[in-house]
Amino acid sequence: MTQKPLDLKTPYLLFLGDAQEDGLAKTAFGIHEWCPEKCKGQMRLDGCKVDLGLEDLNPVEAKTVHNVGTLVIGVANLGGYVPDNWVAPLCGALRAGLDIAAGLHTRLNDIEFLRETAKQLGRTIYDVRQTTQELKVGNGQKRSGKRLLTVAADCAIGKKYAALAIAKEMQSRGMAADFRATGQTGILIAGGGIGIDAVVADFISGAAEMVSPENAKDHWDIIEGQGALFHPAYAGVALGLLHGSQPDALVICHDPDRSHTAFMEGFALPDMETVIRRNIEAAQLTNPHVKVAGISVNTSRMTDDDAKFYMADLSQQTKLPVCDPVRTGMNNIVDYLVHDR
Amino acid sequence: MTQKPLDLKTPYLLFLGDAQEDGLAKTAFGIHEWCPEKCKGQMRLDGCKVDLGLEDLNPVEAKTVHNVGTLVIGVANLGGYVPDNWVAPLCGALRAGLDIAAGLHTRLNDIEFLRETAKQLGRTIYDVRQTTQELKVGNGQKRSGKRLLTVAADCAIGKKYAALAIAKEMQSRGMAADFRATGQTGILIAGGGIGIDAVVADFISGAAEMVSPENAKDHWDIIEGQGALFHPAYAGVALGLLHGSQPDALVICHDPDRSHTAFMEGFALPDMETVIRRNIEAAQLTNPHVKVAGISVNTSRMTDDDAKFYMADLSQQTKLPVCDPVRTGMNNIVDYLVHDR
């Protein structure tokens, strides 16, 4: 019932390379934040300035002392390529008995020496951006279990974080819930999932159907959203994911300071009412009972008082629970889901 | 200005294999219908029962007498694979000096003997389903020139045919107009285009932007639609194509006899008003001035009188020109576009 398209061996050793700043190690920080129990140590090359506060381990120590299963690449260079000075240490990890997982633009399996070393040793290198699963086109047929998808007016606005926080809140209450990853960092955090924006266009909703397979009636899949219906480059991904996820509940992720689509020129973001209406209308194709279960906002640039006022006001306007996953946690949204159904 | 992502050498020799029925040679019939001037002959294997009415030529005759550039595979087997008995004749075509183009599921380039023969001879085998162009993500920036996209409530409902008919009507009036192909048969007809449903999901709208590049102010690109916003498998493709095409005009393709999504279970089609509203709303993201320019219907199962009545009624209800590309031609829609702008 909970078969995952990808199953990374745990626990992890997080590879930080020689990263010079925390911003380049967002993946490592994300994995450490959301699954500390899986993270047994960090592996740093000479000159690395990033520190997760984990024990520095080499692959042999990681394997023999902590039974680590996978070295996870937790850094990206600008450009996403693999620097030459990573190859020897990554081979060392394979020789020590570890698999390797990465979500880089450049596939580790495209580096012949790494690929051949892994093959000879019987290890697996997971390039998680590209799924190796055989995909099907979507069929739109109802699957049992409950599903929540995070959506938004734009990309890079907190959809992964909100989904992780909701799954965690549900799990802490003893509810049956899984975070379902659709992007590379999410996949490395979850240890499974499909990079939905890297599948062939015909298979977007089919891949989304595989990400949240049939499950027990009361089980919640909390699915990481991608793209946005209002994004001139990524709306197709967002719509296919919405249809394939057939969500019972949507959570709208919102940044009160963002007025225009990020990294694009000239696209004003729609208002909240439009974001809700358009997502609901589209989602009704595969789940006529879909509802919005709340709004997840980023109030990090507000004072406590301002945030409190802002969230209360937005909640009153929309008649929906409003949470900030960092400031308030996702209690109100999960309460709403529990009491509404 | 009219750079195409793919440029097949013309004229064509149409390969019919040993097809037993016309239905398997839809691609050949389509190419012959829409670009008879490009079709110098047909090539049939023993036992072939399909006849386009073209001269039977072997590749050497085609090359030496008619200067044919490309052998175009105009048939598909059920399953889309390449039968063993095609390989020798296809190699013969390469040796005679022809390129080969195909839109099959199985890539001809995956057949080693064909690939190597082409390589040795300096010929090109075009598997047009998969583009070889380097794609970019969409940027949403306005391009000069005018664009029309055919859309619908469902797949396989006449979007390619309508686009071809509109482009032909415009060309017959001396208007600057090109059909822009987004699927394999369309690409073989046009000699260029991108199979939009075969690109990586991140690049749908970027690929659509490449399909209809910047052009002269009064030039019309008539773009072949794909999928449908209301299709549980292919809506992502449709939305990305809609955004990347940034159409000035939409033509809605409609089959009065179809009540449910084809080849799917349990999806009733939306009414015309919803089809129009949802497509216009979505298209406004990249072109706020988008309008519906008409409805293209398939009245092939009606009598002349019934069709006339039906089309007049639909036109009155929607206040839009209604055409059947086969029965009436696209005059009214093109008139509407000419007078409206």
TrEMBL record, chains A, B:
<dbReference type="InterPro" id="IPR011669">
    <property type="entry name" value="DgcN-like"/>
</dbReference>
<dbReference type="Pfam" id="PF07755">
    <property type="entry name" value="DUF1611"/>
</dbReference>
<feature type="domain" description="D-glutamate N-acetyltransferase-like C-terminal">
    <location>
        <begin position="137"/>
        <end position="334"/>
    </location>
</feature>
<dbReference type="InterPro" id="IPR027417">
    <property type="entry name" value="P-loop_NTPase"/>
</dbReference>
<feature type="domain" description="D-glutamate N-acetyltransferase-like N-terminal">
    <location>
        <begin position="46"/>
        <end position="130"/>
    </location>
</feature>
<protein>
    <submittedName>
        <fullName>EBNA-1 nuclear protein</fullName>
    </submittedName>
</protein>
<dbReference type="InterPro" id="IPR035086">
    <property type="entry name" value="DgcN-like_C"/>
</dbReference>
<dbReference type="Pfam" id="PF17396">
    <property type="entry name" value="DUF1611_N"/>
</dbReference>
<dbReference type="InterPro" id="IPR035402">
    <property type="entry name" value="DgcN-like_N"/>
</dbReference>
